[in-house]
C-alpha cells in the first residue's frame, strides 16, 4: 500500500468516525523519543523516518511538521503532493489548525499520545475558529493499519546494583521522601527510562533504548505498583523487585487511575500524557503538575555509573578506531556504501561481545547526505562512498555499563580547502565548549554560543542543538540538561548544569547538496578548583576516546591553546586505547594521535 493510499484510507476512516481531521504525533503512550514498531504511526502513514515530527490530516489537505534537523530528509521521504512541509518552531500544529480549519469542524486526537499542554494549545486554536478538538477512544490509524505490529513481549532483565550504584529500594525511598516534601500521596512514572532507573531493570521493547513498556506508581512510603505485561516478569525479576513492588497487568493501568479520590498525585506535565491526568481527575484526585522526581536524580550520575561509562568509552573507542582505519583503507578503493559502512561499524562493536544494541539508528552519511544532520540510510537512499566526499558517521553503543554516542568525519581521498576550513572551525567550536569553565548553576543555553562562535565569525551556523544529556545504559538523549540556542526546537536550554551530568559536545556545519561535518564527544560536568575564586566553578571532562581526523585540520587556524588541547586529547586517547589494540590498528591509532 503506497503512502498516498494510506492517507486516503485514513481520510475514509475519519469520515466514518465523524471527524474532519486528525493529529498524528511521533510518540507513544510514554512520550518517548524512540518508539516501538507498534507506535510508528507517523512513519507508516507518511514515510517519514526521522525521530521527531507530527502530521495533521484534514479532508482536503494535510501537513507534516519537522524541525531544522529534518529539512532535507522530510522532502526526500514524504510526498509534497500529499503534505505541506511546515517548519517548527517557526510554526506549530496548533497554529496551523488555527489557520486551516473551518467553523464546525471536529478534529480528533488520541489523548494517550499528547500532553495536556499540547491538547490545551490545539483546543484553544480550534475554539478561536469555532471548531472542536475531540478525544478518540480508538486511534483511527490503528483501524486502517491492518498489519500493525504487536507491542514487544520481551522479558525484563535486572540491572545489578553494582552497575546501577544504588539499590531500587533506596531509590524508591528517596522518591517517597520527595513526595512527603510535596505533601503528595503518589507519583505516576510514565517515562520508560524513569521506570527502568527507579526499579533497576532494563528491557528490549524499544529499539536502541533498553526499556520495557510499563507504568509505575510510587507511593509516599516507597511502595510501588508496576503495570506491565505478566509474561515480561521472570522469577529473577520477581525476586529482584521484592514484595514492596506490586505487579499488575499493564492493561489495568487506566482503570487504576480512578482510585485516588481525595489524594494528591504527581503527574509530570511534560512526560505524562493527557489521558493520565484526565483519568486521575475523573476519579477525584488532585493532580500536581510537577516534574517526575527521577528525571534530575537520574541525570546526575553516581560514581558507579561514571565508572561504567568510562569502561564503555574505552571499549567503544577501540571499536571506533578499528572502524575508522577500515574506512580510510577500504572506502577510497570503491565498492563501499553507507549501508556497508554501518554494517562494518556494527561488526566492530559486536566483536566486543558486550554490545546490547546500538544507542540509536546509525547515521552513515556520505557526500550530500551528510548535510542532513539526522539522515537515516535505507535500501532506497543507500549511496556509494566515493572519492572527493566527506563521510560522516554518527553512532553509539548500548552496553550494560554505559551508553555511548560519537560522531567522526573522514575524507574519502583528498578534501578541498573549504572542507578543511569548515572542519577546523567546527573543531575550534568543539574545543571552545570542551574547555569552558563556568559558575555552578549556569544554564546549558548560556554555553551554546561558545561552540558556534568560530562559524559565526565567517557567517555560518548549524540548525541543531550543541549538546544533549546521555543516560547510563538508558536513553542516548536524556533530559533535563542540554546545550542549545534559544531558537532551538523546545526553547532555550534552561536547566542548570550540575556536577555529574553527562552531555554531548557536537557542533557541526552542513552545506546542502555537498557535505556535512560534525565532531561529537561525550563530556562529564565536574567541579573546577580555581585559586582565589569566590564562586563554585564547573567544567567538562571529555569522556569519548577516538582520534579526530588530522588531514581535515588546518593547523594555522588553531590558536596555541586550541592546539594544546588537541594534542593533549590525542595523547590521552593514544595512552588509553593503545593497550586495547594491536598490529595495524594500533599503528594507525598512534599515527593519528601524533601532536600537531
Automatic annotation (TrEMBL):
GO terms for cellular component: cytoplasm. Residues 309-526 form the Peptidase M24 domain. Its EC number is 3.4.11.9. It comes from the Bacteria. Pfam families: Creatinase_N, Creatinase_N_2, Peptidase_M24, Peptidase_M24_C. This is Xaa-Pro aminopeptidase. GO terms for molecular function: metal ion binding; metalloaminopeptidase activity. PANTHER family: XAA-PRO AMINOPEPTIDASE 1 (PTHR43763). Residues 537-595 form the Peptidase M24 C-terminal domain. Belongs to the peptidase M24B family. SUPFAM superfamilies: Creatinase/aminopeptidase (SSF55920), Creatinase/prolidase N-terminal domain (SSF53092). InterPro entries: Creatin/AminoP/Spt16_N (IPR029149), Creatinase/aminopeptidase-like (IPR036005), Creatinase_N (IPR000587), Pept_M24 (IPR000994), Pept_M24B (IPR033740), Peptidase_M24_C (IPR032416), X-Pro_aminopeptidase_P (IPR050422). Keywords: Aminopeptidase, Hydrolase, Metal-binding, Protease. Residues 6-137 form the Creatinase N-terminal domain.
